Amino acid sequence: MPDTNFSFTSPLEILKHVFGYESFRGRQEEIIHQLLCGKDALVLMPTGGGKSLCFQIPALLREGVGVVVSPLIALMQDQVEALKQNGVRAEFLNSSQTYQENQRIEQQVRQGELDLIYVAPERLLTDRFLNLLSQTRLSLFAIDEAHCVSQWGHDFRPEYLQLTVLHERFPEIPRVALTATADELTRREIRLKLGLEQAGIFISSFDRPNIHYRVVPKANAKQQLLDFLKTEHPNDSGIVYCMSRKKVEQTAEWLTDHGYTALPYHAGMETKDRQRHQYRFLREENIIVVATVAFGMGIDKPNVRFVAHLDLPKSMEGYYQETGRAGRDGEPSDAWMVYSLSDVIMIRQMLAKSEASEQHKRVEQQKLESLLGYCETVHCRRHVILRYFGEDAADSCGNCDTCQNTVETWDASIAAQKALSCVFRTGQRFGVEYLIDVLLGKDSDRIRQKRHHEISTFGIGKELSEKEWRSVFRQLLAMDMLNVDLEGYGGLRLSSKCKPVLKGEQGLTMRKEQLVAKKASTKVARKNPLNISHFRSQIAWERWESLRELRMDLARAQNVPPYLIFHDSTLREMAEIGPQTIDALSRITGVGETKLQRYGQKFLEVLQQHSE
Questions:
Q1: How far are the Cα atoms of 52, 322, 346 from residue 221, in angstroms, in the given order?
Q2: pTM across the whole model
């Protein structure tokens, strides 16, 4: 056994006594065994699925120190603190530390006094650190957020491409690459770029059954968000994603004006301001972060109760990764998005103007089309997500908007022909609003100036409203029957895919736009896990409130996020069961031996105050 604080000899012993869990989930045990045998692994596991245990436990059982490559300072700091809370000897090395701190930690590495060392790829690739590793007994290398190696994703980090140096310099040390999001293309790229062609591949289910997926037509996005928060998440922590920095600032200000603690986060802010806002989000309750995609990778906060999108993401991977930051603790959570025609046009224009290669543009276009298909589906949203990642899924999950509220469809063949004809007759250079005016026969100076009041499609669409025509054009764009021009003015052009419909050779079915959004169903509205109705008794609710208060006091005293003391799910189990002895408390999920010694008596006193 290595010289650690623990004397356990099996993965299950460490899982139970160090981390406080009775059994492994999914393929965790297989992955751990792979690494204990000295073999490489590629692990695809959803956020909240327990990826970290897959390398932490082998690092505690194998001789030497485990080296974890982590891309973000905040991420590695929280993970190291979480390990320390469980009695594991862990440290990190990054630019936030003083020279003296670096010297001390490097000496600990050299002398074998650590079980795990977390390091950014930039630091790992320096000659100084590689030389340090050459003088150290190593147990394994863990490459977290491995999708950063993919040049197709928005989290691409060029330093990840150089991590093959680990295999070249330390060929006998097992490596594990881990990610929560990877389609087939990205998986191949990870294996190729990291030299993991011979690694065992472990793919867990991408299903997050506790997340409720919902997409609603965008009308007034900020007001819709406010109504969503008031109705379903009045006192919860969550993340709101926007496309632009300006919209981030405006939305955060709007929510603040309406009584929420909402903090902006985007790459244009001063570094110290971004760090302060992320720090507050992790350590305080009921904080909302309004952000661009610059925020979120590796966020470990388990009780994020909702992720809201006010703009369409660029890909299914991006959407899945961002929504996956909700409900890491397994409690019911929401993935809520508003979506409009303008979102589709804007992203199509951004892709067209990109300086990327044509191959890259084609891949990005395919990814966008998959996400548009998800938005417009009349079937189960979870089914669409899982099928995208190559996983078989049931036709109905019962926990998304399309399963809970049947989506009406209609034969849009004639309407599509009218819309496509109007695009053609007006010269394939006008935007949606103008085209709708022509279809509705509006008598405007601009239409008369262009002489479009004289064309055959003028006024032929009066059977539909403006809103319904916007839905038709949006779905035609989603089906790739229309393209956006490259000039930046939002003009629409016909694509080759539209010809069978335009000629009447192919029918077309579309989603029927709801004229009035339905109120949240009772099933949805009751999902908030902090509601008293979710506890079996009044006294369990009182315990829950008191336990949370104690946890917050302990976290503030140590300057750590509350969830590092105990997760919400652990507190809820305590509140429901109400253990009255240390032995009974030790059997609560998430209570390992070190935490029992540190906090057991304090939590037991609170539980005894509320004994039944």
A1: 37, 19, 16
A2: 0.82
